[in-house]
Amino acid sequence: MQRNVAWIHGNQAKAGKPIHVTLNATAIAVLTKQIGKHPKAVFSYKGKPITQVNTKAWYKALKRAGIEDFRWHELRHTWASWVAQNGVSLNVIQEMGAWESAEMVRRYAHLAPEQFSQHARVVDNVLNSTNLAQSE
Fold first, then answer.
1. Tyr recombinase domain spans which residues (predicted)?
2. What is the pLDDT of residues 112-128, one digit of tens each?
3. Is the residue at 24 inside a domain?
């Protein structure tokens, strides 16, 4: 927690490789609240470690929230969409999201039109500086 980093071990990851997860202030606050609740596990229920999340309680909570057809992967997709929409570059999204290829991350490119507009304006700057130089 001092480094604001969590690790997903390779045997728990889809690709079989460990994943480095940078934790934001919200995640650190959630984890900090868990300190002392269980001697080993971060999350527990009635004194026992939570080792599985797809339980009857989970499905009941989804139903109460009106969420249908939920897949865990959608959380990763939502995260990538949010950060792309807020100007995080695709190479940073790839690294933080642990995608192996840039191709997988390119699907989020359309969510960052302002970021691309910013780069398109570079051409305006080049043309303007060239026109100024030619008119002198």
1. 1-121
2. 777 777 778 888 888 88
3. no
Sign of CA dihedral 51, 56, 62, 64: negative
Structural domains of the chain, count: 1
Q: Does 101 reside within a domain?
A: yes
Phi-psi category of 120—alpha, beta or left, where left has phi over 0 and alpha has psi -120 to 50?
Answer: alpha
Contact assessment for residue 42 and residue 30, using Cβ atoms and an 8 Å cutoff: no
Say if CB 78 and CB 71 are below 8 A apart: no
User: Which residues in 13-44 are b (16+ Cβ under 10 Å) and which e?
Assistant: eeeeeebeeeeeeeeeeeeeeeeeeeeeeeee
Domain of residue 80, residue span: 71-136
Beta bridge partners of 5: 22
**Residue 21, SS3 per DSSP:** strand
The predicted-structure confidence for 62-90, as pLDDT tens digits, reads as follows 999 999 988 888 888 999 999 998 889 89
Q: How far is residue 88's CA from residue 81's CA, in Å, rounded to a whole number?
A: 10
Alpha helix (H) ranges present in 1-136? 25-34, 56-65, 73-85, 90-97, 102-106, 113-135
